[in-house]
Automatic annotation (TrEMBL):
This is Carbohydrate kinase PfkB domain-containing protein. Keywords: Kinase, Transferase. Belongs to the carbohydrate kinase PfkB family. SUPFAM superfamilies: Ribokinase-like. Residues 3-153 form the Carbohydrate kinase PfkB domain. It comes from Polymorphospora rubra. One of its GO terms (biological process) is phosphate-containing compound metabolic process.
Length: 162
């Protein structure tokens, strides 16, 4: 299950708890930034945040991605053209560089990133490689103007990711 916070947090929490109880992985893109109930964070398998959202959750941002592990077992901290960090409680901390592109509109980049991350993880990729593929998705997305029309196809992501 993938969720974000553009709907009431109570709805997201109920869905995440139900998904977890059914044995489904829960990926939460904690955007827009807000306080999150412990019940929701306890149900999250993988958290995706940018530095503003990381700051809101932990009081720390760009320089301390591992701070997110105080609230979830795995996290990705997105940093735009600086790439992303993947961290987990097993001790993995990996910086994934961004793919250099000419960005024209970042409106849907977070959605493209999170969707690609979840797809790659569901396909069995390890989460560092999934984060790399998600970075390619975000980069492919920002090359076009618009929201849904800029979301990349798999071939666009694979072309960038090599």
């Amino acid at each position: 299950m993938i969720a974000q916070l553009e709907i009431p947090v109570e709805t997201v929490t109920e869905a995440a708890v139900a998904a977890r109880a059914a044995g489904t992985r829960v990926v939460l893109n904690a955007a827009p930034a807000r306080d999150l109930p412990a019940e929701l964070l306890d149900a999250v398998d993988l958290l995706v945040v940018n530095e503003v959202e990381a700051q809101a959750l932990t009081g720390r941002g760009r320089d301390e991605p591992a701070a997110l592990l105080s609230v979830v077992p795995r996290a990705v901290l997105t940093l735009g053209d600086a790439g992303a960090w993947y961290v987990d409680r097993d001790g993995t901390a990996a910086h994934v560089p961004a793919f250099p592109v000419r960005a024209v509109d970042s409106t849907a980049a977070g959605d493209a990133f999170t969707g690609a991350l979840a797809v790659a993880w569901a396909e069995g990729r390890d989460l560092v490689e999934a984060t790399r593929w998600a970075c390619a998705a975000g980069a492919a997305c920002v090359r076009r103007v618009g929201a849904s029309v800029s979301l990349p196809h798999r071939v666009d992501i694979d072309t960038l990711a090599g």
